[in-house]
Amino acid sequence: MPSAARSVSGSGQAVELEATELLELAAELHESGELDEAEAAYLKAIASSQTDVAACACADLGLLYCERCDVDSAEEAFLRALGSDHPDACAYALAGLGVVADARGDAERACEEFLAAIATRHPVAAPFAKAHLEQLRSR
Hints:
Elements lengths: L13 H18 L3 H12 L4 H17 L3 H12 L4 H17 L3 H13 L5 H13 L2
Helix pairs in contact: 1-2, 1-3, 2-3, 3-4, 3-5, 4-5, 5-6, 5-7, 6-7
């Protein structure tokens, strides 16, 4: 699933721009497979005072933890993103929680999370969740 980092735009303030650039760097590192460096950059973005950046960083960090098969850390990151008011971060988090539930063998919860992600109509997270839901139901 593509990164939630692409959903954050800066307002021109120096602090926000700095945090946004950090999130973009984290996403680039993540995409290039430099997971340790990406994790560190996501954690710095989460620690920023910019709530939108932190929310998207949490969602992206959850994806990174899924790649590492660390479902407990992934769930924690997704729940933190879900607690934000950022619609993109929430959509990605719902889809991610579906992946976490599926990895734990909880098909019922996975279906619920995927359906919630689909209901957001997010242009990336909803189709991702739909594909995973179809795959889950075909097993």
